[in-house]
Amino acid sequence: MRLCSASLAAARLTVRGQVRMSSSLPVAAVCQMTATPDKEANFSACTRLVEQAKQGGASMVFLPEGFDYIGSSREETLALSESLDGDIITRYTHLARKLDLWLSLGGFHERGHDWKTDRRIYNSHVIINGKGEIVSVYRKAHLFDVELTSKGVSLKESAFTVAGPRLLPPVQTPIGKVGLGVCYDLRFPELSSALQRRGAEILTFPSAFTVATGAAHWEVLLRARAIETQCFVLAAAQVGSHHSRRASYGHALAVDPWGGVIGDCGGADVGVTLAQIDLQTLRDIRRDMPVQQHRREKDFYCSLD
Q1: Which listed residue (65, 82, 110, 201) is catalytic?
Q2: Is the overall model pTM greater than 0.90, yes or no?
Q3: Which runs of consecutive H residues, i.e. helices, occur in the chain?
Q4: Which of 35, 48, 105, 130 fits 70 for a cystine, CB–CB 3.0-4.6 Å?
């Protein structure tokens, strides 16, 4: 486990071998891990990342999609799932309270409301505050049903996952107002724009991008969403081989509102990148280039329909 290189470049002080951001600006920690079907091992790995982030001065920590586990089959994925009041989320609420940290848990396998009859789940992004309280649960709206035969990618998320019914308002956190998405939601700019219009200053897309789609699209999509909305974009990521049938691209990223990459965990290792969230810089960018003020009314963009 390591602190990623971009964080090292931005930091000034080292405490007990850990890097601590020296500015008074709030710090977000964007994590990268390699989940497996072993839920206990995954929790231990995430706990180490969260503790490392705390030592680095973070006030909010972002974990990736599938932080709880990544199953090797549909059957295993469903069997390992839990409800929000189950053991896994309960343990994370205790961890948040113990460390007085906000947690973004993106991509929790939540048993659906009709679990007993249809055995389907939600892909849920859970926000826990520093008191250990669940303050928001966004359920992924866009499901990843893709057949890229030439690239060896075949996934049908809708076979066992229920699409979320709605967007949720951005959450006020110690680092700013955070708008919630999950992974494939990144490809739909309407979602990011809607969150920005409701006041989002930070967009977050916890993910487990495939190697093929990640290499082609991951960074450019994240930077595009940041530039379009003039928001910070934080994207925790899975990396490496989860089991014999699946691997993820990595490169957990933090992007500023100008589209610059301010943290990158790379494509090989587990780690944490620390990003200072300077909301004054965001306000300056929005003032100097008032894109949202220049946007036409909704009917204008529908005039070709």
Answers
A1: 65
A2: yes
A3: 5-10, 39-55, 74-80, 87-99, 115-118, 189-197, 211-213, 219-229, 279-288, 291-294, 298-301
A4: 35
Q: How far apart are CA 193 and CA 167, in angstroms?
A: 12
Q: Going residue by residue through the chain (305 aa), what tens digit of pLDDT does each one get? A: 567 755 444 433 333 334 555 568 999 999 999 999 999 999 999 999 999 999 999 999 999 999 999 999 999 999 999 999 999 999 999 999 999 999 999 899 999 999 989 999 999 999 999 999 999 999 999 998 888 877 777 778 998 999 999 999 999 999 999 999 999 999 999 999 999 999 999 999 999 999 999 999 999 999 999 999 999 999 999 999 999 888 999 999 999 999 999 999 999 999 999 999 999 999 999 999 999 999 999 899 999 99
Q: Is 231 a catalytic residue?
A: no
Q: Is 65 a catalytic residue?
A: yes
In the annotation, is 183 catalytic?
A: yes
